[in-house]
Every structure is written in C-alpha cells, then in structure tokens.
Specification:
The protein has helices spanning 14-22, 27-34, 98-101, 129-147; strands spanning 2-10, 42-45, 52-58, 64-75, 79-89, 92-94, 107-115, 118-127. By secondary structure, the chain is of the alpha+beta class. Helix 2 (27-34) crosses helix 4. It comes from Paenimyroides marinum. This is SRPBCC domain-containing protein.
C-alpha cells in the first residue's frame, strides 16, 4: 500500500474541527466535505473506538457501495484512526477475497493539533496504488470544502 499525507490549517478550535469533520452534531457536515469523493457520501455506524462503521455512497446506477471499517482509535479532538477491512457492494458486506485483500488493514488517520485557536488537520491515508492519483487530486479539494464550513 502507498502512504499519502494531506494537511490543512483551519481557523477554528480542534474540538469544532473534530465535531464538524466527523459530523457528530450534524451528519450533514461530514456529508458536505466528503461529497467531493461521491455526491451521496455518508456513513452508517458511529465513531466510538471498536465500532464498525460503513462509509457508503451510491454509484451512477444507484447501487450502494463503499468501505467496511472499524474505528481503531478515537481520542476526542486529537486523533481518529479508521481501519478498513472490507467492501460494501450492492449493499452486501464482503470481508474476504482478492478484491478485499488489497484494501484490508489499510488505515485512514485524522490528527487534530490546535495552536492559538487554529487547528492543523493532518490526514494519513493508506491506499492501493491504483487509487493514489485519485486521492492526491480529490483529498485536497475535500479538505478545502471542510475548511469552507468554518
């Protein structure tokens, strides 16, 4: 897997960035910034450590798909670690097989570091090589969208 990192500084306290990014008070804030990846992007589940969470959207044919993940760590306002272990295809969870193996065990980590009322948000992402260019193009746009919510 390839490791990517994205950083942005948001003019807001870490607690506000954390809550907005994860959509804790209003899921629409999560859906707003992740719409850069898929206009129907959302999640099912919760952000508690050890919880299963599905990151989902529908494709151009209305088929529901996405990632099956676990919240590996959640330190409020500081750090969130998401571990992928499966795919969702047409509403069915797939947790084994060659298609899953390329993604399984990959992490997406969010670090929030507050300094003088502004927060440096760092995203560390494991991705398969075929998606690296996509994430390099879209993740900065998604973070700009998140920034625009403040």
């Amino acid at each position: 897997m390839e490791k990517l990192q994205f950083k942005t500084i948001i003019n807001a306290p870490a607690a506000k960035v954390y809550h907005t990014m994860l959509g804790l008070s209003d899921k629409a804030t999560y859906e707003a910034w992740t719409s850069e990846f898929n206009p129907t992007s959302t999640y099912e589940g919760n952000w508690e450590k050890g919880s299963k969470i599905l990151f989902i959207g529908t494709d151009e044919n209305g088929v529901k798909g996405g990632m099956v993940s676990e919240i590996a760590e959640n330190i409020p306002n500081k750090f969130v670690s998401i571990r992928s272990y499966g795919l969702l295809k047409d509403g069915v969870e797939i947790t084994e097989g060659s298609e899953v193996e390329q993604w399984a065990g990959g992490f997406e980590n969010y670090s929030f570091e507050e300094n003088n009322g502004a927060t440096t948000l760092t995203v560390d992402l494991d991705t398969v090589e075929t998606y690296a260019d996509y994430f390099k193009e879209v993740y900065p746009k998604a973070l700009d969208k998140l920034k625009s919510l403040f």
